[in-house]
Design goal:
heterodimer; A: about 120 residues; mainly beta; 4-stranded antiparallel β-sheet; B: mainly beta; 5-stranded antiparallel β-sheet; globular
Chain lengths: ~120, ~110
């Protein structure tokens, strides 16, 4: 049963704490993405990775970090530098982008991060 | 001006109605267009994917793209209470470019 899993479903962060959100996919997709979703706003891209051991900043990368050591895994760390981390975080993946065809993205179920 | 605009709603319709959801955009380079459905506290799921202009139909859903007007639409026929969700449009320009999402329209289909 292929898909994208995210854990945990809910995560609580204390002041000054770093927290890591997990994203795993078994779709054999090359590209993976992290988005942040706030009420009334579209999804905003935090980081993306098109191949293992490589990733690029998105529109709102400050206060976040990622790694891509395995094709199926793309964890996101919300650092203490992110001053407003409360949001719904979505991980997505897509197959390797073909020169003539822009593949669409498939999303995980999301992680809701709350600040204590 | 935001790159992609979408009426946030909420839009309430009776069961069986035809629903029209729309997005406008400013970047004329966009040529890949998607509609996602997102239930409350869930990840978005892909509904429709179209390339360039024209119509695409899938069951009760029809996606239309009018590149000359920079306007895309999603029509839902015979709407059902299970269609109650937020609908996100997304678009991108070309290979290697990332997607830009609209803020979503919240739809409520009343039984």
């Amino acid at each position: 049963d292929g898909g994208i899993t995210q854990s945990p479903k809910y995560l609580f962060r204390k002041e000054g704490q770093n927290v890591t959100l997990s994203c795993e996919q078994n779709l054999n997709h090359d590209a993976m993405y992290w988005y942040r979703q706030d009420p009334g706003q579209g999804l905003r891209l935090i980081y993306y990775s098109q191949i293992v051991n490589d990733f690029q900043k998105g529109d709102i990368a400050e206060g976040y970090s990622v790694s891509r050591e395995k094709k199926e895994s793309f964890p996101l760390t919300v650092t203490s530098a992110q001053k407003n981390p409360t949001a719904f975080y979505l991980c997505a993946s897509s197959i390797e982008l073909d020169f003539e065809y822009q593949e669409t993205q498939y999303f995980g179920p999301g992680t809701r991060l709350l600040v204590l | 001006q935001k790159e992609v605009e979408q009426d946030p709603g909420p839009l309430s319709v009776p069961e069986g109605a035809i629903v029209s959801l729309n997005c406008t955009y400013s970047n004329s380079a966009f040529q890949y267009f998607m509609w996602y459905r997102q239930y409350s506290r869930k990840g978005p799921e892909l509904l429709m994917y179209t390339y360039s202009s024209g119509n695409k139909e899938d069951g009760r859903f029809t996606a239309q793209v009018d590149k000359s007007s920079k306007y895309i639409s999603l029509f839902i026929r015979d709407s059902q209470p299970s269609d109650s969700a937020t609908y996100l449009c997304a678009m991108s320009s070309s290979y290697g470019q990332n997607f830009v999402f609209g803020p979503g329209t919240r739809l409520s289909v009343l039984p």
